[in-house]
Amino acid sequence: MKELAPDHPEWTQEELFRAVLEGDQAALAGLGMEGLTKLVMASHAGVTTDEFAESVAQWLRTARHPRFNRPYTELAYQPMLELLHYLRANGFRTYIVSGGGVGFMRVFAEAVYGIPPEQVVGSSLETKFELRDGEPVLVRIPEIDFINDKAGKPVGIHKFIGRRPIAAFGNSDGDLQMLQWVTAGSGLRFGLLVHHTDGDREYAYDRESHVGRLDQALDEAAERGWTVVSMKDDWKVVFGDGK
Amino acid sequence: MKELAPDHPEWTQEELFRAVLEGDQAALAGLGMEGLTKLVMASHAGVTTDEFAESVAQWLRTARHPRFNRPYTELAYQPMLELLHYLRANGFRTYIVSGGGVGFMRVFAEAVYGIPPEQVVGSSLETKFELRDGEPVLVRIPEIDFINDKAGKPVGIHKFIGRRPIAAFGNSDGDLQMLQWVTAGSGLRFGLLVHHTDGDREYAYDRESHVGRLDQALDEAAERGWTVVSMKDDWKVVFGDGK
Q1: With CB atoms counted within 10 Å of each terminal CB, which end of chain A scores lower, N or C?
Q2: What are the strands of the beta sheet with A227-230, ordered from one edge?
Q3: Which of A118, A151, A181 sits opposite B161 (nearest CB)?
Q4: Does A94 score more than 90 pLDDT?
Q5: pTM to 2 decimals?
């Protein structure tokens, strides 16, 4: 928001945006879903898809995680990277199915996870085709096209992939319906949950967390035969050296 | 519609459906977009995605084209199949980008065109995740999700593939914006239009046709450097022997 603000003088007229630009943490914490949506629409729409991808790339080149003091692109879990590599080496095609915005994820998914743009399924805004001075562009408009979370995940997988995967991996209740749908298919199926249990090396949270809550999926894991991995007990390394 | 009618006694109460079931050609010709949409919603929604795929497969096994007296799956253009094969043999990934329903196309695209489900971009109805007696299913609901035609085609390509193709092939004004967007990208680009000029072996139509009109795209082909192929003059074979 801060980087985009110089192009948006009208933002200073709005209390919500002013609070964000002044780094008012209390205001940020109290945003709620409506306020968050407003922020995303303001900062992620109104530009062409190419411009948006460039601004994401620019942000990723410079932003660092405040606690781990690394670029976000170096915070992929090492065991996840090894799993993706292992699956691909054995003839699987791997996808990311994220609640995050697909236009954001696609910018770095190939470099970080080895997953090309067409194998990223995510949430999206509407886009609109336009001729600008005769030049065809796709413009991001401030309307939600698709929310790829919870019951939306199997819908998104069906929409983009058109067939049912045979394995799915999640870490929150946002992945519950995806795991149900994937593991209910015929033949051998595999479902796995990563349980964030490591407050030292990463974070520890589950049933009470406001973000990434893992509750119902944890209850269903046992009865449905999903593997539960404890980050603290089962992962030798959390973040690798990026190689 | 006729095959589904026994499960839908309520259709006999509706004039539109009755006309269709009685094969009333005049009524069919006068349907208009609203009537057609109503037919598609009635016949393509209300079932699970698996049930729909099965009913498409069943229809394809038995239906024959009235003029060519062949199954529809044996009516792919031979030069198109050869082109797809040639592109794939040279490291390209090939996609179908159709105005037709993606849930319909995906059932036969792999067998007929060698294009797997995840490489079919098309129009779609909304689907909804449900647990039916504990069994997770995706149900097709009678609301349009996306129309992959005209200005929707570049939008659909961006949505599903997330990058700009370097070559595109079309045969109607429904492909105009796709061709504009694809061939406006940087580097070498290729655009091609098939002109249906062969009333003997297939059909002859262009600027005045109500279905598959080719008018504005034909005008732009010259100025934008798109290749125009005449089916009559340039295609030695239209329909092959299916091998």
Answers
A1: C
A2: A167-170, A190-195, A227-230
A3: A118
A4: yes
A5: 0.91
